[in-house]
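Case study 2.
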Amino acid sequence: MICIIASAAATLANGPALATPAKETPWLPEAAAYRLTLHYGNLAPVPWEKIEKAWTEPYRGAAFREGAIDRISDDSTLNTEAMEAAIDAQDRQALFAAATRLIAGRIEEQLDRAIAAETSGAAQTAVLEAQELYRAFADHVTAADPEAAREIGMAWLELSSATGSSGVLGTGAAPRNTERMEAARRVISSFLAANYLPDSFGRRATLSAIPETVAASDRVVDLPATLPPGSDIFDQDPLPLLVLNFEEQGIDEKDLPLIAYGDMLFDSPEIFGDPARSNGIACSTCHNRSDINQRFFIPGVSHQPGAADVDGGFFNPMFNDRRADSLDIPSLRGLRFTGPYGRDGRFASLRDFSRNVIVNEFGGAEPTPFMLDALVAYMTEFDFLPNSMVTPEGALTEAAPEAAQRGEEIFNRPMAGLADRSCAGCHIPSANFLNRRAHDIGSASGAYDGSRAGAFDTPTLLGTAYTAPYFHDGSLPTLASVVDWFNDAKSLGLTEQERSDLTAYLETVGAADEPYEAFGERNTPFRLAFEELTTFASTLDTLLPARDAKHTRLLIDTVAADLSADAGTMANQSARPEIYRLANILFDVGEAVRDDDWAAAERHWASFKVEAEAIDERVY
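Prediction:
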């Protein structure tokens, strides 16, 4: 007998992580609420109000308009009193046990309906709903007992087939077979009864409130580190344009192995710990193409899209500051000009800042000096978006609108509300519109009397037309609202026309000639990814002769897995098998390195380059 004790914050340490996340099937309200309960229950401090909302309201992006409790009330003979009482009492273990029994009971209800259904269609509908409810447990069962998971998987297939509908394989209708349905149902029900339903459940659980592991007989099994329902870590659309200093000078990244390796690390979940690693979260997940991923959202981690609490309990419990301080993700454009680093400028060195992100914020292993060198070398190539309306010295050109030119005068005008300084006193036009200092402008309240926690690094204004919302917490939706905030908070006394002109100036300074990547029939997202991944792989020309096993394996684990995953996005589907073959060749390079067979690794790498060149025109 196994005892399932689930946690969305647990670790899965097997296999390389993919930087290309897969679209997730929508969750049923009850299953979503259960998984959100596990997720929130493992945060410290526990956001009880979010747990309550998980059961009473649809999760973010839900396909259903009603919450889990309303759906249960409308469709079930079960009641939610024990679960709601546990929430009121803020008793995590009681909540976990009650919620687990509730979902297991809902599965049993749907199985009863399937058996009792008068038509094959009604039976199939009930089976599918039961299976969707079981999804709340499925990956945990697989982690705890793969054999039991396989048997249950077969039982679901048998149930679906025996209903007499066309079945999941679409092979045509078969006569309904209640006896087969009963037999398959017994496999599932006996498992639920043994592991989820008995009164002894709470006594079999370990003493910690919601443990992060599964106790399976005498084994302890780590659970998959899954993101909760409502999460979004996909690239934003349209995709921001990446401007790299060396590319603008006509230099091929393949001739810059340190930078190319840093580019790979920026896209690699492998440098982080779980749960970031297992879910394919890399630096580029948040800093999309050096900019801001305005889609990024994880419940309990983000207070709104485009924000994250990187020192909370989710990514690295050791680094948990126990403060709900989700911050707006900053742009990394022009990074070599924008130090010090961190929202409050606490890191003078980009190298120290990068190490803190890897080790402390995301729980990764200590990076090697080479890895930090490579990351810094790559990130310092990020440039601002070209803007023909602003000179390199920060002055407007004749191409700027008249309103913006009037606003430029206001921007440079000393004002009493700014202690007789101007906006340009902090956002210095000739210094990329920043002054490399932290200031407390009153946008955040102090945590205690005399606190200086409201001081934040002065942000650049370049490219800001595409980085809404604004301020450290993303509390202001537009540049116009930023102007209004300063006008009110600092008693600037600007007229409506002056506010409009100053907004036009900020929008002009923050604009760009080409802010987004331009895709076409052949210049596809896959083509972009393929060129990036083969560039990353080109560093093997340096790593293999150096017999650098550690950094070679890290590269292979990142690039081979992602190349295979990205193949599914190809427009030219006929070339997809060739991409899988390329990925397999890279895996062969990695296996040879693991076996310390460098000659074989060199042969496989030579084969990869020949194949990649041969299919280059077909990959789009």
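The two ends are 51 Å apart (CA to CA).
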